[in-house]
Amino acid sequence: MKATKSLLLLVFVQLGILSYAFSQKPDIQRINPTNWWVGMKNPNLQILVYGKNTGSSKVSLKPYTGVNLKKIQLTENPNYIFIDLEISKAAKAGNLQFTFSNGSGSTIMNYELKNRTAKPQTVSQADVVYLLMPDRFSNGDESNDKFDDMFDKDADRKSPWLRHGGDLQGIINHLDYFNELGVTALWLTPVVENNTHQTNEGGTMRSSYHGYHFTDHYQIDRRFGGNAAYQKLINEAHKKGIKIIQDAVYNHVGEDAWFVKDLPRKSWLHNWDKYTNTSYKDQPLIDVNGSKYDKKVTEEGWFTSFLPDLNQKDPLLATYLIQHALWTIEYFNIDAWRIDTYIYNDMDFMNACNKAILDEHPNMLLFGESAVNTVISQAYFTKNNLNIPFKCNLPSSCDFQVQGAINTALKENFGWNEGVNRLYTTLAQDMVYQNPEKLVPFVENHDTDRFFSVIGEDFNKYKLGLTWLYTVRGVPQMYYGTEFLMKNFKNPTDAEVRKDFSGGFNGDIENKFTVAGRNSQENEAFEFNKKLLNYRKTSEALTKGKFMQFTPFDGGIYVYFRYTDKQTVMVISNTKASEASVSTENFAEVMKGAQSAKNIMTGEILNGISAIKVPAMTALILELK
Fold it and tell me: Where is the Glycosyl hydrolase family 13 catalytic domain (predicted)?
């Protein structure tokens, strides 16, 4: 009898809850995008509205000149409504007013249309990109290191796997450092909110300090300072002539992302009968003999078990992601766009997303992370000259091929295909790219072993490799700490190559931002970078010039030129263990009778340059006169 009464009570309680739910007026909890702009070239806007009881609402728009409510879309989840608008050229900035009504009442939603004010600057060969990880760079505001109402409540610099407290204010505090060094653009690893639990990776609980586990696309992580701090950073950076590159992630989100916890519909994720990880193989995507299954695994397999893989073939999700990209650029005034895990995305979606951005900002540099093994694969995932059915429209890519070639060239002895011939051969294949000058070469990043360690901590090789990086075609990218010889291998984890920037945190014994905080060799490295990068900023040949290389010869001599009608810069590399005297008679087509040259690193004037002496394991950078 008691069991029967308990059961009846439970039924009544449940009925009461249902009755209460259906008796409530719409409760709007989220609107994405949070605002929009008049004057966009694409007149279409889709607003995601989320909240309890919204799915059963009747939606109306108060008449507004130039704005037309085209349709309402519902999904299998009653907590979502998608509103499709058309915003014509006649629309002016102001507030739209929507009414959501059901049998229990109405809710008013105001939605702001703004005038466009963003003026992105073009990132090009004229720039040098500095990649940094905000959490590891500098802590400018210790009050935002951790929050009790976030899933990951830890911040501990003693642990390589937890957050360390670096933030956007810390970067602002050191903008003059970047000006001194000579870099002109900052690429920050993602700053979008990562409000997610620590994940078990290899038996160790780890924070998403790197930023690649998005949970709310429209919020900058509070531990970095939030939206206001990001806007402040960009404004202050622009005042000092420094551009900002956003790190975008389309392939996946964090497992605690708000819409993963309450999906609009199941098709927003790639769903498998059993968990399937991506193979991380790019070959199935370009292989004319490959299987559909292998391609599916690469594209739709999850990057990790705790990163839900997004299905960009779903039109609602595709629009959500594309609009977020456009919103971010407009809202924060972003200058360039780097795309994480590019090859794992749906390529039709990527073309649509790239086009949407370039339609609004035709000169914006978009470059993808395509960590592939061959020049052909890298070309496939950017604008190319290949005669293939699918054509990618991405303007640029992180140049993993040049990265591999430089590192290998410095580790191998010279041979037919070895040593500096690796770099020469890689660059000789530039014909496959439509715009090789837009590629972003590098020697190290946050996912690789540190360059100085890879080359055996050889300082001559260090200078040689960076000379190549800063003087070949493309938009060179350095990694924080490269300038003062940070080193390590990814053993046991990536955290080993993501150490804190010494001097960016209270209590640091050394301050690498200053001459006094660096040892003699570190200062020599810093001054080498500073000298070359600041010269580069003023060199028409290095920032705008064409690239011509000559076949390596004489056991390891490699010569190339950057040139315009007004300036020619010659780079002579001697990768041998002994000094070499290099005859210049074979370079007449580009030297055009030049009789003297200036060594831009020493200021020395070389008169009579029919033969030039080059020390062992050294590159000379000569401005021809």
Answer: 131-536
